[in-house]
Amino acid sequence: MAEPSPVLEMTGIVKEFSGTRALSDVDFRLFPGEIHALLGENGAGKSTLIKVLTGVHPLDGGTVALDGRPVRITSPLQAQQAGISTVYQEVNLCQNLSVAENILIGREPVGGGRIRWKELRRQAAQLVTRFGLDLDVTAPLGSYPLAVQQLVAIIRAVGSGDPAAGGTGDAGAGTRVLILDEPTSSLDRDEVEELFALMRRLRGDGVAILFVSHFLDQIYEVCDRMTVLRNGALVGEHMVADLGQVDLVKLMIGKDLDELEELGEHHGEPDTSEPFLRAEGLSRAGGIAPFDLEVRAGEVLGLAGLLGSGRTELARLLFGADTSDGGKVYIRGEQAALREPNDAIGRGVAFLSENRRTEGLVPDLTVRENIILALQAARGWTRPVPVAQRDELVAKYIAALDIRPADPEAKTGSLSGGNQQKVLLARWLLTQPRLLILDEPTRGIDVGAKAEIQKLVVSLSEEGMAVVYISAELEEVLRLSHTVGVLRDRRLVARAANGPDITAGRVLEIIASGEHQ
Amino acid sequence: MSVIETLRTRGEGRRLLQDRRLPVLVTAALFVVMFGFGAFRYQSYGFLDAQVFMNLFIDNGYLLVAAVGATFVILTGGIDLSVGSVIGFTTMLTAWLVEKQGLPLLLVAPIALAVGAFGGYLMGYVIHHFEIEPFIVTLAGLFFFRGLCLVISKESISISDPTVDRLAQTHVPLPGGSFLSIAAVVSLAVLALAFYVLHYTRFGRRVYAIGGNEQSALLMGLPVAGTKIAVYTVSGFCSALSGLLFTLYIQSGDPLHAVGLELDAIAAVVVGGTLLTGGSGYVVGTLFGVLVLGLIKTLIQFEGTLSSWWTKIATGVLLFAFILIQRTMTARRRT
């Protein structure tokens, strides 16, 4: 088969951050009319490659060619003008502006220097409708949930041909290359389907799409070709049809997946004595309906439910991050008033938020400082952790959790998502909690890191720690938990010991119907 | 798409409380209520004379111009503390050039405006390219310009130039027998222009975008650097223009003119419903903020027995109340 010439060709790309090589000699090419997956573990260099391509980071070596002509892209604006549009992992739009403005800002229709608002709204509404959405384009973006915002970001990226010039607002008129960096992590199934339909349509129009996702099923569903990176280097480029999932994972992590399978269905038996934490009729108006709950030492309590079903709200009540309106919490048999997180931390409860970037990490501090934070807080500022002990602890946890780069002085913000999660985990483990609440600890994390975190949960519970494990992935919850709780519409609708009769299908039924016998 | 439909209706239900115009309406309503109070209480002292209302613009025109400049800066999430010093410096520079050097006002005014704008440009440049907090950079500007006043002269320079005199005395007649000063008319023109720029030009929308999320604005491919620098340039220009209007109003240059006026400007912006965190607010709100602050002064004058310090106390209380309102509004938005 004679291949057409690539629309984008990157050759020998090198990028260094203060001495460490994030990308070394990476080649990458994109053909018109294909969906191309960029794969690799966290920290493999996917985001860096994208940021180099879109002019966020300057290039340290190598060449970029568009349509065979070498180009030098030094800013996101320039990338857009060259026909490269990007949707980043975190929604990068302005919450305070209207949906219409977010879609068209920077290329608003103007007449005589004056923005033509009617025309702007018309074009935006047209684009939104084309993508099968029904939104009020005059409403502020912030009034819509994250998933919708993500779709708006995609509409913006795709619609970045200059509609004012074309007059029609044709989607994709000027976009040659569309980069989607983890666009699906905040979308539900239907929304993902719609996104895929859109991607296929754009592919038909000859747009080259670069797609990054941690969901391998999605890669196999929608992509044509893939490029695999590992540790900042190119591992290979393959047609999706030619490479099975198992082989792909091997390429990504550089070792076999068997370790994942080793995780037994049942591991360690929980303590049968008094529960470590017991909630009675705990509730918060607008957050979650009254619920009863028990967690024992050595027990993993898995909470399943859709996004927004009240999983996080429940966890925040147990941690005192939100105050309850009603009900009681008993910790080790004693009633505990959890008015603020400190009340819970003092009783041995630790909570890993699902928003690790905004509610956990201090990105400007080093890995060492982030790890030591909670321990220091628990000791009080008048009793600093001795330097030697501190360095030893930090080194131990960096090694135990395999945090990469294994440099305690690295800025935490520069780490990949999975490694940031591990830093947070290390921070809490250092305080030796008795109950660990994990809210979506594996979201946005690659297969290898996921398995590591799951294994860690198992070994922690075997050592006698109580764990509340919240995840949208049912298999994960079922594999790890001794007890499974199901949430639906901000209500804990079912709680049962994990066993052969509790299957993913059964849990889905409960989520769908809200009934449990 | 049923999920999105239900979300949509929920979105609309919350819209009234979320509407960004609400704070402006609250301030406008407050103004009306305060005015009604004055009209009721001081009816027999001629409070309802149209000129009392017009005097609000005449006495606060310079503040309005400074506050409009400050609105641009605050909308991007920044702050400009150099406003009062730039005003003071402009009065000194103008008085000195006109009185001591004998230059015509027609020539002096553009020079003063250019100096103010250039000062703002420099501060904006430093803020953006050296990534320094605007608070610190404009604080340096505050000291710098105040110091420059004293370099020109340690004493006040009164202006007897006939052009200045004529401009200051000119009444712009209005139907009904009341009038406005030139300065008041200029300030209203600035307000109208600012409204147009903020809502009908790409530059204006970029100001809002940067205030909403600077990082996003950058990734959306907007020219953030130029916009941020331009915003401080606008503020410097408005400060200088405000200084010119102040010179007309007082007819002198003094190294101690307009000390702390930047705080009045910021107060007016905040009372007018603009969020200090940026991205939300209207220049029309700033007008009402200025009017409310001016009306407090007027009411206290009419009361007659209260010392003028009560103006400060009332302003303090108002500011506090409005910040609390802002806080609850943003908190609601987040949930």
From TrEMBL, chain A:
SUPFAM superfamilies from the UniProt entry: P-loop containing nucleoside triphosphate hydrolases
Signal sequence segment: none
An example molecular function term from Gene Ontology annotations: ATP binding
Keywords, in A-Z order: ATP-binding, Nucleotide-binding, Repeat, Transport
ABC transporter domain: residues covered: 8-256, 271-514
Family matches, as Gene3D superfamilies: P-loop containing nucleotide triphosphate hydrolases
Pfam families given in the database record: ABC_tran
Domain of life: Bacteria
Protein name: Galactofuranose ABC transporter putative ATP binding subunit
Species: Actinacidiphila bryophytorum
TrEMBL record, chain B:
InterPro entries listed in its UniProt record: ABC_transp_permease (IPR001851)
Record flagged with keyword Protein transport: no
GO molecular function: transmembrane transporter activity
Database matches in Pfam families: BPD_transp_2
Membrane-spanning parts: 21-40, 52-74, 104-123, 173-198, 229-250, 282-300, 306-325
GO CC entries: plasma membrane
Subcellular location: Cell membrane
Membrane topology: Multi-pass membrane protein
Keyword annotations: Cell membrane, Membrane, Transmembrane, Transmembrane helix
CDD domains, sorted: TM_PBP1_transp_AraH_like
Name of the protein described by the UniProt record: Galactofuranose ABC transporter putative membrane subunit YjtF
